Each structure stands twice: as C-alpha cells, then as structure tokens.
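Work Package 4 report. The design task specified in the project plan requires that, given a folded chain encoded as structure tokens, an amino acid be chosen for each position. We show below one input record used in the internal validation round.
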C-alpha cells in the first residue's frame, strides 16, 4: 500500500479513540420490539418459520446482519461476514486454503458439522450447489460470489430446521435477502490492499431502483478485482528454514537420488551455483541429512499463493408488477461471472531408472521454476465460472389468506484448468529408452541420458512443448416449483390459530466432464478420469401451525415429508418440530424447540465414478514412527496414489436438534439473549481424508498413538483403516513399506453430536448532542463435539483430543458504533478460542483481531469511508510444525488491509 493511503487510514481510525468497546464477529440478533411499537410494525416472515408475525423473535434463534454492516465492520465480502459468525465454529477448506478440491469456492461450517449440513437460501429459495465436491466428497453452496451491493440483510438460523425447509437444514439455515424495493441509485468505489504486500484490490458498485404506478424495479451491477498474495510476500513464510528446527534444509529443485539408500548423488561441481538465477535467485547447493547433496532453494514455496487472484462481476434485476390490489407478478434474475487463479504446487517430474551412462540405479527429480514457466501463474490453476438464478412467480391474497407460487431455476458452470506435463517428458530429459534391467529383484527401465541434462534450465519454447493446460468442464443445476399459503385458520381465546402450508416439486443434477485427453495418454503420470454425474427428483409437503395456548404461551408445530428419487431408487422421511414460547412478563420471553431432520446422501457420494489420482507430498506417518521421527519434522513425504468412488448403498442421515433459551428486553436500550443447543446426527455419511486414514493406520499398526494411548489393532476401526492402505512389503529391496495406494470412499458413520450455547447482549444509548452509541457482544461456547466412526468403537473427541480437534472451543465477537453528526465510527473484533498447535502437542492461546471503519457524510448524497481490517497488523505464528509457521485453515496471514471507499447517491 502507498504510504499516503496508510497515513489517511491511521488518521481516520484514530477518531475511534473515544470509543471504549470491544467488537463483534457474528451478526447480532434482531432487537425485540418495544411493546408500544407493536401496532406499527408490519408482519414479516423471519427465517425459521413460514408464518408471518409481528414479533421478530421466534422459537428458534436467528441472527441478523444488515447489508450496511458488511462494510462498516470491515468485512471484505458476504462470505467474510458469514465466516465470522461465532456459530461458525468448524474449520473448513476455502478459496485461499491451498491445494484443495474446491480452491475457487468458500463455505462455512455451522456448529462444526460441515458445509453440507447448512442450507443456503437466496431470498428464501434454494440455489445450485458448487459443481465440484467439497473435499472431493460432499456437495455445498459456494458463498464466494454473492453480490454485496443489493444485500438487504442476512439471516442465520442455527439448529435443525428440516420440518420447515427440508432435509438439508441439519445444522442451520443461511438466508441471504436482497433488496426488493428502493427509490434512487447508489454508486460506490473502493480501493485498497495489504500493508505487507500483495492483495491490491478494487471494487465498483451501482445499485438502485425506481417505482412507477404498478411497477417496482431494483437492480445492481458490481465489478471487483484483487491481486494475489504469495508466500514470498510474508516474512513468516518466505523462508523454509528460517524458523525451522535445527537440521532442516531447503527442499530440492534438482536432485539425483539413490532409491535404495535414500542418499543423494552430488551434482557436478559448480552446477548449483550456475542455476542461481532461478527461483528468484535463491538456488544453492544443499547438503542432505540422508547423505549427499542437491540443488535446492530456501524460497521453494515463495511463488505459491496464499490468497488467490480473482476477478468477478455480477448483475441483479428484480421486478414486481401489481396486477390489482390482490395479486402481483414478480421476477428475479442474478448473474455472476468469476475468474480465479492460484498457484498451489510446482510442476515437477521424477523418474527412477537404470542410468547406463553412470552404471547405477537413480531417481531424478526436477521441479520447474517460474523463470522457466513464464512466471508463477505459468503453472497455476484457473477457474472460469458462471452462475445464474432466475425466479418467476405470482403472489397475493385471497381473503385473509396469502399465497405465493414460484418457479426457481439455478445453474453453476465451472471450467477448471490445470497445467500438466505431457507424456514425452521422460524422453525430453532422458532420451530414448534403451530397454529394461533387473535391479534388486525389480525390473527398471534403462536410459543413457546426456550428462548434466537434469541441471539444464528449460527455455520458453521447451516448456511449451512438454506441458499443456487441461480443462475440466463441471456443471450443476437445480429447479423447483413451490406453492405456499399462510393465514389464520380461526380465532382462539388467546389469539388466532395461524397456519402455513407448502408443496415443493423439484429436481437437481450435476455433471463433471474431465478433459478428454486425460483418457488418451496425453498427460504424464495421470490416470484416466471418467465423466461422472447424475440427477435426482425431489417432492415435499409441509404444514406449520402457530397455536396461542394462553396470552403468554404459544406453541409452534410443524411437519414435513420429503422424498428423493435417483437411480431407480427412492428414499423418504417425515420430519417434525415442536416449539414453545412463554412470556411471563412482557420483557422476557422463554423459548424451546425440538426437531428432527433428514438428509439424503450428497449426490457426489452416490454418483461419483471411480477416480484414480495421487495426493502430492503426503506424510507417511507409519514410516515416520518406524524411524523414530516426530510428525513435525518427518521428511518421509511423497506422492501417494489413491482410488476414490461413489457408494450407491449409502443410507440417509437422521438428525435431532434441541434448543432452549430466553430473550430479555428490559428497555429499548438493552437486551440479552441466551440459547443452549444440542445437535445429533446418526447414520452420518462422511468421506475419510487421506491424512486421517494414514494417521489412524499408523496408530493401528504400531498399537498406540504418538502420545502413548493404547490402540486395539483387531478392532473394526483398525481393520477398516489398515485395509484402506496398500504398502510394499517391509523387506522389499526398493521402497520398503512405501504406500502404493489409498482407498477412499464414503461410509455411513455411527453418530456425531455437538452441544453448546450462544449468548448475545445489545446496548444502545442516545447522548443527544454527542450522538448515539450502540454496541453488541456475542459469545459461542462449544461444550461437546464427539464423533464415532463405527458402533462400538471408541468415540473421537473433536473438541479436546488435540490430534482430532476440528472446532474452535469458543468464539466471541462484538461491535460498537458511534454516530455523531456526519461521522459514523465502528470498531469490530473477534476472539478465537484455543486450537491445537501444528505439532498437536499442546494448545495455542486464544487470538483476537480488530477491524474499524470511519465514515464521513459530506452531504446528503456523498460520503467517504476508510475501512481497516486487522488494525494491529498481526497474526498468530506457530513454528511447532515447521513451514509455513502458522495454522492453515484456522487463520489467515494477510495482515493489515486498508480500503478507501467513496459513495454517492442520486
């Protein structure tokens, strides 16, 4: 960032010095209405119920964040705001996570139950899921490309809501509501970046609308671009060895190794020095711990991305036409186009062969550098994506009953391209094969390569001849028709008996089409990949009743029936919910709910075809244990082949949810909310990761965990995990005990449970001439999160077992806003609870980060804002696990980011 921008930002943020409060990460709940204002509040539909009501608080806790607060609290996007909700306690892979199956997508994990257990709605309607499976297994909605300009509010319901919304709403519901009516237009320009380098970004928005006699029109246009942040842009990750344990050495770029002894053959004298201009001028001769030397670089990872490069645009149009006083037509259309580029790996080649020139068995390894590939993005991945949602419907009322009939269609297209080496790469480095030779009981190819060919840099023409970009075409779609009605059935002594009913008919599908050349032997070291995909139909019907039992006591009852059809089979399940609201006094509401849930298996679990590939740079924990190496410093890492496929015999998941709490509003200046939750999933479908498989397999083969806990090798758990890992015999002459293949497929797990509570306090006060001060503080505590793989096996503690912890144990957030005259100042912050250190030996201390914004209204039409994210410009370092010296997936290392924003209304 330029120094002038930093000075402006610091000066503006300094204006917050008089605001003595903590900030918020999670959306604050809707303020309870004041008794005297009830008569003037329109009836609305709040997420968690289809019944319109005046009282904004229902039996289920709902958090709300306004569109304006997304900017004032320093959030970069809609996803950034959602990810900071304290109820989002689970760590997830995301757009900036690195080498994942969905590096262009962002998701959240409410209650730590995974992204596939949260239902995402846009204006109360479903949207197409991301066409590539999250973590290679489950389907989820991408939250990365949602528009900011026309967001009216975001409502987050946490807890089971299957009886209202269907079988996806196990952990909760996220409902993003766009503006439906506005008069006038707003233009916004934003520019900023990070202080430590990289991440420069721009955003332009135009939104607004007009109303005529019978027609309301609202729309928006939005364009944004941001530059990448590389590992080399951050001091903590620039060097592989700077903060490493003694004895750590830079990774190899050019190496020749003895595959039997694991020692390296020394490169000819002076060759490494001659390559010094590569990898940013950091190539050097490195002495290996296993013997010998190679040409390596301490900046091996510096040209890989921490934050992706991204360019996106979207457009929205909403129309409402009033036919008469009793009916109106409406339509919505949202279109988005995004290009994401990242660099998560280097392009590398290796070959074990008999070198007829040297007269010995060798393994050559070659990592191509940015200088050879046309820059860092020369080997980067690219994701060209388009998504659209269209709705057409009619709504109105017949007598006292309201109705809505709507057709919804949503599609997502993702073209994902990766650079791969071509099959001629062996001949390029080694020349023509000279036959085969038996070596130590194995048959090895024979080559007679030119001396020093391994150490010769590629020209741009040579790189173009040995590598090419391969593109996979992935699509997903969803369409449904919904008819809903709500109104009063009849009058009871304590008030009207209200009802809502809904009927849904829909279908959805996806298709993954790999580049056809992958099956034609064009790409080096790449197994064929077959197209996969499928479709399923869905029907559902639901009924909800709101029953006033007494003046102070109201019950809510809901039931729903869902049915899915696929592959000639069908699964169905009824779900129900019960809720009670009790107001012993006007300022206090007690509430509790119980609900069941149901989820058909993710489509990718069912329709995925067998896929063969490899995991790059995976740690072999069993061999680490055999050689007495700690996991944090173990150097036994290599590519491992895997087989992955679907499972048509999976059973549906079953869920239960219980909540209990209260909302206390003693005055319009203060309110307090507390809610306890208890969620349980049985017959859960999950896909095992290669890291968990290898860790558990090592424990089972050794008979105990690294910390000394006893493991039964004959248990069902151990037999399953050991059977998933195929290895060379322990007495093999070459690569003994090396993994030859890992089998990964979905299974029905026994159960998963999580319990905890949320607490929120809101306060506000009008100081008249000194302005209005308002603040909010939210705290989420996870009391228990357990998972059992097979019935009768030990229970995994996802909260206290450091080797398996997947949740923040607690999260706290808060915000304070001071409005005085033309100035609005907001301070916002979030505190993350303890997580394991990278070596899983202890816990990290809690960590807090603060954002701030200052807005000055120049006049009724124009305003200028300065927004700063991570004011202290710090992030938690963790050197216990080696490079990159922080906890990926839990925190980011962007550091301080600053934006200047101009807004104009007309």
């Amino acid at each position: 960032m330029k120094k002038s921008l930093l000075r402006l930002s610091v000066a503006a943020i300094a204006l917050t010095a008089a605001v003595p409060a903590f900030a918020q990460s999670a959306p604050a709940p809707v303020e309870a209405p004041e008794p005297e204002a009830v008569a003037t509040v329109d009836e609305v539909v709040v997420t968690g119920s289809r019944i319109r009501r005046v009282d904004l608080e229902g039996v289920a806790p709902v958090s709300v964040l306004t569109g304006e607060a997304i900017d004032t609290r320093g959030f970069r996007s809609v996803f950034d705001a959602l990810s900071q909700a304290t109820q989002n306690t689970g760590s997830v892979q995301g757009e900036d996570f690195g080498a994942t199956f969905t590096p262009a997508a962002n998701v959240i994990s409410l209650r730590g139950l995974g992204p596939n257990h949260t239902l995402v709605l846009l204006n109360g309607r479903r949207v197409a899921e991301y066409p590539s499976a999250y973590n290679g297994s489950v389907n989820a909605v991408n939250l990365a490309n949602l528009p900011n300009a026309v967001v009216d509010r975001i409502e987050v319901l946490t807890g089971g809501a299957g009886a209202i919304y269907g079988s996806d709403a196990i952990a909760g519901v996220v409902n993003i509501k766009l503006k439906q009516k506005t008069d006038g237009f707003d233009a916004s320009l934003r520019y900023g970046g990070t202080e430590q380098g990289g991440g420069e970004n721009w955003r332009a928005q135009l939104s607004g609308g007009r109303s005529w006699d019978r027609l309301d029109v609202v729309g928006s246009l939005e364009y944004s671009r941001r530059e990448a942040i590389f590992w080399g842009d951050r001091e903590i990750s620039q060097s592989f060895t700077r903060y490493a344990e003694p004895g750590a050495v830079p990774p190899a770029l050019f190496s020749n190794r003895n595959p039997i002894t694991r020692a390296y053959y020394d490169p000819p004298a002076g060759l490494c020095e001659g390559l010094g201009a590569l990898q940013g001028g950091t190539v050097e001769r490195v002495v290996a711990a296993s013997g010998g030397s190679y040409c390596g670089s301490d900046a091996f990872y510096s040209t890989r991305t921490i934050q992706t490069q991204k360019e996106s645009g979207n457009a929205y149009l909403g129309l409402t036409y009033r036919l008469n006083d009793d009916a109106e037509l409406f339509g919505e259309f949202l279109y988005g186009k995004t290009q994401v580029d990242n660099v998560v790996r280097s392009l590398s080649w290796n070959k074990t062969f008999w070198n007829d020139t040297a007269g010995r068995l060798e393994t050559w390894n070659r990592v191509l550098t940015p200088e050879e590939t046309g820059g860092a993005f020369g080997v980067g991945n690219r994701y060209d994506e388009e998504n659209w949602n269209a709705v057409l419907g009619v709504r109105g009322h017949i007598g006292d009953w309201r109705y809505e009939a709507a057709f919804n269609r949503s599609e997502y297209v993702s073209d994902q391209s990766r650079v791969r080496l071509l099959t001629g790469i062996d001949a390029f480095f080694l020349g023509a094969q000279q036959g085969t030779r038996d070596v130590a009981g194995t048959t090895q190819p024979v080559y007679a390569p030119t001396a020093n060919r391994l150490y010769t840099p590629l020209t741009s023409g040579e790189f173009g001849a040995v590598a090419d970009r391969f593109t996979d075409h992935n699509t997903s779609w969803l369409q449904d028709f919904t008819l809903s009605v709500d109104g009063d059935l009849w009058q009871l002594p304590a008030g009207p008996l209200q009802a809502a009913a809904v009927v849904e008919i829909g279908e959805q599908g996806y298709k993954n089409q790999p580049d056809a050349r992958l099956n034609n032997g064009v790409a080096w070291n790449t197994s064929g990949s077959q197209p996969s995909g499928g479709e399923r139909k869905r029907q559902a019907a639901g009924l909800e009743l709101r029953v006033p039992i007494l003046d102070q006591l109201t019950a809510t009852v809901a039931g729903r029936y869902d049915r899915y059809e696929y592959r000639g089979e069908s699964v169905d399940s009824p779900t129900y919910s019960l809720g009670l609201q009790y107001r012993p006094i006007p300022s206090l509401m007690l509430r509790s709910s119980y609900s069941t849930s149901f989820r058909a298996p993710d489509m990718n679990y069912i329709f995925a075809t067998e896929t063969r590939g490899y995991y790059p740079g995976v740690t072999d924990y069993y061999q680490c244990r055999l050689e007495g190496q700690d996991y944090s410093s173990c150097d036994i890492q290599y590519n491992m082949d895997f087989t992955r496929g679907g499972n048509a015999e999976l059973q549906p998941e079953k869920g239960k949810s219980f909540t209990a709490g209260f909302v206390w509003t003693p005055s319009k200046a203060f309110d307090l909310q507390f809610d306890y939750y208890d969620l349980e999933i049985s017959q859960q479908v999950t896909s095992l990761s290669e890291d968990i498989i290898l860790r558990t397999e090592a424990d089972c083969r050794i008979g105990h965990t690294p910390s000394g806990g006893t493991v039964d090798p004959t248990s069902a758990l151990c037999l399953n995990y050991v059977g998933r890992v195929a290895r060379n015999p322990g007495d093999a002459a070459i690569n003994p005990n090396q993994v030859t293949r890992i089998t990964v497929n979905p299974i029905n797990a026994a159960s998963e449970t999580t319990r905890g509570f949320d607490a929120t306090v809101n306060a506000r006060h009008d100081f008249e001439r000194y302005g209005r001060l308002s603040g909010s503080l939210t705290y989420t505590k996870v009391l228990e999160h357990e998972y059992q793989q097979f019935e009768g096996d030990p229970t995994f503690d996802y909260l206290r077992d450091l080797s398996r912890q997947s949740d923040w144990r607690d999260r706290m957030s808060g915000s304070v806003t001071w409005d005085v005259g033309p100035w609005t100042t907001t301070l916002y912050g979030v505190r993350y609870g303890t997580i394991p250190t990278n070596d899983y030996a202890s816990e990290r201390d809690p960590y807090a980060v603060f954002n701030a914004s200052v807005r000055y209204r120049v006049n009724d039409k124009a305003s200028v804002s300065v927004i700063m994210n991570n004011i202290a410009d710090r992030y938690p370092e963790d050197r216990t696990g080696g490079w990159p010296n922080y906890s990926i997936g839990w925190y980011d290392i962007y550091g301080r980011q600053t934006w200047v924003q101009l807004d104009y209304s007309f």
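The first helix runs from residue 3 to 13. Validation will be extended to a larger panel in the next phase.
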